[in-house]
Write a structure and sequence with these properties.
Layout: H1 3-18, H2 24-35, E1 39-46, E2 51-58, H3 62-70, H4 77-80, E3 90-94, H5 102-112, E4 119-127, E5 131-139, H6 150-179, E6 187-192, E7 198-201, H7 205-208, E8 216-219, E9 222-225, H8 228-244, E10 248-253, E11 258-266, E12 279-287, H9 294-301, H10 305-315, H11 320-327, H12 331-345, H13 350-357
Antiparallel strand pairs: 1-2, 1-5, 3-4, 4-5, 6-7, 6-12, 8-9, 10-11, 11-12
Helix pairs in contact: 1-2, 1-6, 9-10, 10-12
Amino acid sequence: MSNDVSFRRASDAVRAVGAGDAGWLDVVHTAREFLGADAATFLCHDKQSRSVRFVEQSGHEARLIEEYAQLYYRYDDSARRFWDAPAGTWYSSSIALKHESQNDRVFWNEFMRPNQLQQLVGVLICNDDDTLTALSIQRTHVVEPTFANTAKIAEYERQLTAAFAARRAAARASLDALSQMLDPTLEGLLIASPDGWVLAYAPGLDVLLGGNDSQLILNQRRLVHRQPEWQNRLTNSLRQVNVSRQPASLVLPDSWGHAYRTTLRPLGSQMNHGLRAAVGVRIERRSIFNVPSETALRQHFSLTQAEARLFHHLVAGLTIGECSEVLGLGTSTLRTQLSAILRKTGCHRQGELLRLATMLAP
């Protein structure tokens, strides 16, 4: 394939990502052709935890990517040496170089060499305080750099950084718009990877999950439940939604009398950062102590003031006998009011009535 054709295809893929019409996997595929590589990866390193947030790849076995993400990224100093470099910086390393650090020796001798990889070349797409995101190619032989395509590579580099910024801005704008409809003290939104990495979240989520007794927390940009059993359920649900592309719900325990109701959905192009594996998570904090007011019950169900007062106390957990003592009314009078409430709400049992009332709880 001619260099002009491969550059046009690579450039078109990057522009499509920036416009929300394609994903980063398309960029990885075309980068292999344009840059003359045996494989390519689009990779995000988390600087605080020194782990991998996400990977899109072409040309590698899944086993190799899993080994890298779980272990050998710790020894990959090829990009880490440029953690303070600006976006657009290119880096290169090969098996032919003299590797003086222990990390280099482990990375090349125990990971790259056994997988017949002899060279990697990458460009930093985004580099901030939290993450380093790069497009990297890998070759089974060492290729000496030439300056024949300098102009095209410079243009390609600019397109990559612009596309990444555009997709991140689109997700940020969508989150900000949706968050205007939420009460940040009770609910929040985030975009996560199937492993629980939080790619972005709506304003206020760190406060919602930031209580000292909160069981669901943000820990180094990961969504974590303090109880291992429920953490496993959360991770499994995220992965299931990513695979099935179907929404799911999960209720997670919190402190006594509270719980988190989570709704997980696969995301479209405006919010998925251009990644195949991105899941939207809505988090609602529920409490048994949140009881609908008498006014809300009266207005919503067209009740009398006396009926609304009884309904409010029943939702708060009192029995008819206890309501009789609190309200100073006989049980026969209260049962008559309860019958009227059941008729007006269309319920047949008191249990149905209480479940219906929870819909009005703040």
